[in-house]
Amino acid sequence: MADALLGPAEIRELAARLGVAPTKKLGQNFLHDPNTIRRIVAAAGLRPDDVALEVGPGLGSLTLGLVGAVAHVHAVEIDPKLAEALPSTVTAPNLTVHPADAMRVRAADFDPAPTMLVANLPYNVAVPVVLTLLAELPTLRGGLVMVQKEVADRLTAGPGSKVYGVPSVKLAWYADAKPAGKVPPAVFWPVPNVDSGLVSFSRRRPPAGDIDRSDVFAVVDAAFAQRRKTLRAALAGWAGSPDRAEKVLVAAGISPQERGEMLTVEQFTAIAAAAKLSAVGGKLSASDRQPEEVDS
Ligand code: SAM
């Protein structure tokens, strides 16, 4: 039987007993509202045979909700004091605590292999944590994360939206993502000065299996580094020149006058594919280069 969920009094008492002073640097805002915990666990769409990966269990609020819902929970916590205290708060036998930085974990660190990421993420590293774990852990079939509302909007935005950008396209490469609700500041201690949002995602097949993710992401990074420019201009540095960018874009069936913020992840992948087709030995072919660049 799982331990009871933590309310405001229990969170204060636990923090005082452990001598925990929450830090901004580690994004430490702890949940103290059992209803929000139940809401997160329900929205995650967990199956009893799932293995949950929780990044940043903190004082254990969400961990307590997860251990009763899945077969196993891996909790990765960077703060040694919190990691050490967690097994006393959550006494369930199906919990493994990993005192580690979530940005540095590897698939081999987890047995059984995680299938779902469920976390109230440290807000300053939320996007890199989600993208790194999706890359590192192919067994993850999806997840539900709580992030700053503004970041939730970015992660789930589609082409044409003002907040569509690098995080939106990169997450779309791995997964179908959708907003799963807003969470008010009052359910945290200390109270943050921003709203929070839930993002649910489920892994999808990569847009084109034979194009390397890093090649697609290089196009995405270049396109959004100068998001107000046309793709012809924005991709000039990446392709070698505006003319070469235009050639690749036309070959990919995309107007060189278009802007990156209008493209789907499939279209970014088509650009990477067109560049690969015109490449020799990893570079654009000699016939595509400017005269001064042609090998002697
Ligand atoms: N899950 C808890 C809750 O809902 O009450 C705490 C969430 S708090 C927003 C974020 C937690 O992530 C903190 O416990 C913090 O110490 C931890 N953390 C911050 N950076 C981390 C990292 N790189 N890897 C693992 N944990 C991290």
From TrEMBL:
E.C. designation(s): 2.1.1.182
Catalyzed reaction equations: adenosine(1518)/adenosine(1519) in 16S rRNA + 4 S-adenosyl-L-methionine = N(6)-dimethyladenosine(1518)/N(6)-dimethyladenosine(1519) in 16S rRNA + 4 S-adenosyl-L-homocysteine + 4 H(+)
Highest taxon above the source species: Bacteria
Protein name from the UniProt record: Ribosomal RNA small subunit methyltransferase A
Free-text function comment from the UniProt entry: Specifically dimethylates two adjacent adenosines (A1518 and A1519) in the loop of a conserved hairpin near the 3'-end of 16S rRNA in the 30S particle. May play a critical role in biogenesis of 30S subunits.
InterPro entries: KsgA/Erm, rRNA_Ade_diMease-like_C, rRNA_Ade_Mease_Trfase_CS, rRNA_Ade_methylase_Trfase_N, rRNA_adenine_dimethylase, SAM-dependent_MTases_sf
Any single GO CC term annotated in Swiss-Prot or TrEMBL for this entry: cytosol
Pfam families according to UniProt: RrnaAD
Organism for this UniProt entry: Paractinoplanes tereljensis
Residue span(s) of domain Ribosomal RNA adenine methylase transferase N-terminal: 36-205
Listed SMART domains: rADc
Keyword Chaperone: no
Residues annotated to bind S-adenosyl-L-methionine: 29, 31, 56, 77, 101, 120
Family as reported in the entry's similarity comment: Belongs to the class I-like SAM-binding methyltransferase superfamily. rRNA adenine N(6)-methyltransferase family. RsmA subfamily.
Record GO terms (molecular function): 16S rRNA (adenine(1518)-N(6)/adenine(1519)-N(6))-dimethyltransferase activity; RNA binding
Keywords: Cytoplasm, Methyltransferase, RNA-binding, rRNA processing, S-adenosyl-L-methionine, Transferase
Protein's gene: ksgA
Location in the cell: Cytoplasm
Primary localization class, coarse: cytoplasm
